[in-house]
Amino acid sequence: MTEENPTAGSNNATSATATSTIAASSTATSSTATIYPTMLTVVSLALWLAATVSFVAGGASWHEQLSVLALLPLVVVTGMFPNTLPLPSGLKLSRERMNFTLSDALVLLIACRYGFAACVFVAGIEGLTSSRRAVRRLSSNLYSFGMMSLAAAAAAASLRLVLAYGFGEVAGGAERSFPAVAVGVLVASVVHISVNTGVISLLFATRLGVSVLSSWRENFRVAAPLFLPTSAAASLMYVGLQSGALTMFAIGAPVLIAIHFGHRRYRDSMQEQLDIIERAQQERIATMEKAHRETIEALAVTINAKDEVTHEHVLRVQIYAAGVARLLGCSDAEIEALRAGALLHDIGKIAVPDYIINKPGKLTAAEFEQMKMHTLVGAQILGRVGFSYPVVPVVRSHHERWDGKGYPDGLAGEAIPLTARILTVVDCFDAVREDRQYRKGMTRAEAVEYLLGNSGTQYDPRVVGTFITHLPEFEAEIAAHRNTAAPTYGIEPVEQLSEAARHVPPAAGLAEAASTGASQFADVAFTAAERAMLDDAARRLSEANSLDEMLASFVESLKAVVPYDTCALTLAPPHADDCIVAHADGRHAAQLYGRIVVADEGVTGWVLVNRQPFYNADPRLDLPPALVARDASYRTLAACPIMHGTELHGVVTLYSSSLPKYEAAHQQRLEALTALLATQLSNDATSELTNVASPELTNVVSPESSNVATHVSPRLPLPASPFTVGASQVAPVFALPQTSLTGVAIESELSH
């Protein structure tokens, strides 16, 4: 058996005991695995040279030499018709194969008839020619040449011992008893098989780090007996050769042909088994891939329920990421990891509260700490799925920064996985170009400038350069997908509860609504002047005869204690989807009055949905774009929901050009006044609030109109005063806990 590649990763072994060729892959080439084939080649080559000299210049007659030289072409030609069989380990879909030929029978015949030297001489040449047909690499050819010589030498030596000590016959000669030949050739065949397969098993063992015996059992235990029929063929041909070459051919040819077709039948049956196993493995792989796809889609549904994402965004990011990864030399597995990471990198946000995810503008320090956790949670979730490609590093590290100031691990530069660096760049580029409820998307040029401006600090410069250079190619690929149905990745609208389901109470009953009594304001520290002002505001609200008068009274009280340049009161009709600015005051009031506010759009829309106050965001996130284009002087805003218990009436939004931020005192006063307004709106059973979406209101464009609503409400009852009356102090009526009044006084430098 010849080993075709003793020093490289692919092994091709051509058998001597059936001239087997084994093509195997080995990735680990240790020093032992390199030294071993070199030593074997040197020793075997020396053995072949010694045998050749002995055969040519030794005791062999010229007639024997000519006979051996005449048989040599027959040996070489016979080796040209192999039967390729998979080794038993090949059933595991490895690349190992074995080529059976019938030249071994002729080699054993020469050993029996012409002796040791002639056998080694012919076997070496046959090993070299067989190896050259399989691979043209000198090191592999010499290794196979030497290995075949060594196996033939061991077989010839064992034959001589059996003949000499078992039957008392000398080596060489044409006259031997048939029993001696049959037994001797059988023993020689077994030795030949053992040496041949043992040498290759030793090579496999040194390369793969396994024992020689386990390597032999895995590869040759079942296949080795297939070599044995060649010993019977050699014995019969020896008997025929005693009567002449024609008789040898007449006896040997049918036997060798029968063995050849027997090997072919075995090969076909083995191939059928291999095909069955391959199909089964392919089915298992397909099932696993389907399971992974369904897992990805299930996770995508989870993401969609928590965060704003579209399948068009995912497709674009996948195209960008895969294109950059190919240009930077990433493997196929890494590219697949990027495709999955484009969809799943924010899966960890399921552990982040909704109000943080959907919050417009900047986050507080505490909120940002919670947001950071989504990288670790996402990595933990995906780490348990068992993806066949490395998606976990993408998810864990996609918020790391090139300068080491990212999270969660603070990695810097090349320490950040390349796939994560790629996703960070391309996802940011596409995300900043999309419109969100709290901001407008950038133009293409602005997004490119943003990446260049942050290259070398936030982003890998090489990734940024590659992406921008090839951006037109990626955009062309995206354009080609526009006329085809894009995959949804399981991102679909979340099913909503039915109206009947919304009215189903919990089994334990509902908790009582937030208290509207005095205790809610007990801990709020108002000054005497503030208490007097709020007491007056409560009285004026209760005396209002219409909704318009009530809102105007509220604004007059508000401007006395909370500074603003523009104020907008957005009311939420109980049975309408959209809200409307029912009252506006200050600069640009005419442009805001009557404006439709869609829930979850802008800061006011966010407050409507989340029912929580929001302070010190960029006013551009909330004001109409046309107004922002004319007046960019606004610096901060404050938005407070008008809520009574769980009942939402609307939002009060203040915009300021002079204040850098609304302090805690401002927030406290705003929420106190807003609570009074909410109480009055709830107490008025016939309030015109139910008519704020009527045509009479929505068609009005001037805040100076005296007919804001068509109904006039009766005089509203005076609520309990929350402040000092005479010498006695009455606790306030409404307020939020003081801990919620800090708003975003401490803000993170990064928006989410």
Describe the structure.
Helix content is 53%, strand content 9%. With 752 residues, it is of the alpha+beta class. It has a six-stranded antiparallel beta sheet, with helices on both faces. It has a two-stranded antiparallel sheet with strand order 1-3. Helix 1 crosses helix 5 (138-166), helix 1 packs antiparallel against helix 6 and helix 21 (547-561) runs antiparallel to helix 25 (664-683). The chain is rod-shaped, with a radius of gyration of 44 Å. It starts with a strand and ends with a strand.
Rg (C-alpha, Å)? 44 Å
Quaternary organisation:
single chain
Q: Kindly state the mean pLDDT as a whole number?
A: 76
Helix content: 40-55%
Q: What structural class is derived from the secondary structure elements?
A: alpha+beta
* Count of individual beta strands: 16
Contiguous low-pLDDT stretches (5 residues minimum) are 1-29, 90-94, 512-522, 685-752
Distance between the termini: 66 Å
Summed up, the helix count is: 26
> What's the main sheet like?
6 strands, antiparallel
- What share of the residues does DSSP label as strand, in percent? 5-15%
What form results from the Cα inertia axes?
Answer: rod-shaped
Strand order of the largest sheet: 10-9-8-13-12-11
